[in-house]
Here is the input.
Amino acid sequence: MTDASLGLLVAVQGAVLATLASRLAGGRTRRPAERPRPDGLEGPGLTIVVACLNEAARIGPCLRGLRAQGAPVQEILVIDSGSTDGTRELVAQAAAADPRIRLITDPPLPPGWIGKAWALQHGTTIATQPWVLGMDADTEAVPGCAAAVLGAALREGFDVVSFAPCFDGQTAGERWVQPALLVSLLYRTGAAGDPRVRPDRILANGQCFLVRREVLLAHGGYEPVRASFAEDVSLVRHLAGASVPVGFLDGSRLYRVRSYQDVRQMWREWGRSIDLKDAVSPIRRWGDAVLIALAQGAQLPLLLCLAAAWPELPAGPTRSALLGLTLGLLAMRLGLLVALRGNYATRGLAWWLSPLADPLAAVRIVWSSIRRPRRWRSRTYS
Here is the structure.
């Protein structure tokens, strides 16, 4: 390898490191994880909306967690899209024990809408309280979760705010691959709780998504993002572009989520939207894909190549700079893994070895950027 080739690699590595350092710098002063408020919160009322379709295997813990919520929760609307697996019966049982719970069947899905966005639109429209908290059927909220998220929104002055979860019940395969995919999001957007994140890069999480109802409806509800497979990120960036105060905070102490059965389902389902293609322009999407390919996909192979070819490389400051930058990027990756430990109920060896899955994560981002999903949560879209 020539000095010119080494110099080019140094320039690329330096640009990648500078980009990531800029995006993640605010993580040092990010807001701490929100704490639950089991004593409740007096003030404006809140409606919880759960969109579901054939969630019998997962909705039990969700309903149990929602029933444990006190003030300000006034009603809990479960918007079902025609489940046939026993979901409706489970919701009916919960409703018999808690009069706040209502089972509602949403109208037929209009052309051009993704099912979840349509269910949330319907739930938000019929909600009677000034604040609406969307919770996914695979979540389990701790007592005081709803009071904490509303308290955080009022404290920070947000009209829209969502919360990062604590991942629970993952298989060893998921604990190896999923953190690498999660890091790809942070490399593209910044850390949860960082107030410096640009509106067009802010992240969101629909698993715990709080909105001021009148503000959301004034901006069209979910209609502007009706065709998005990443409706949470698409919506929050749409609203941020309209100068609505939005935020993304750490909710790892407020609720847990068990999204997938195994690593194959996680790779297939989450991987379909992990590129955020519906929330960014094609130029931004491919720019981010290149960044992930360089920052996550290339670092371990490059380090191995440097180790193998070190004696044959031209000696001098360029060679040393390349090694230093590569080690710096890997150290940043390990530091980010440590910072995320609170978002996982179980870690173990597979979790600590997840940086080895970074090349796979890069491949998934690129592949997802190429293909648009056709099937999502048992529904097929044209």
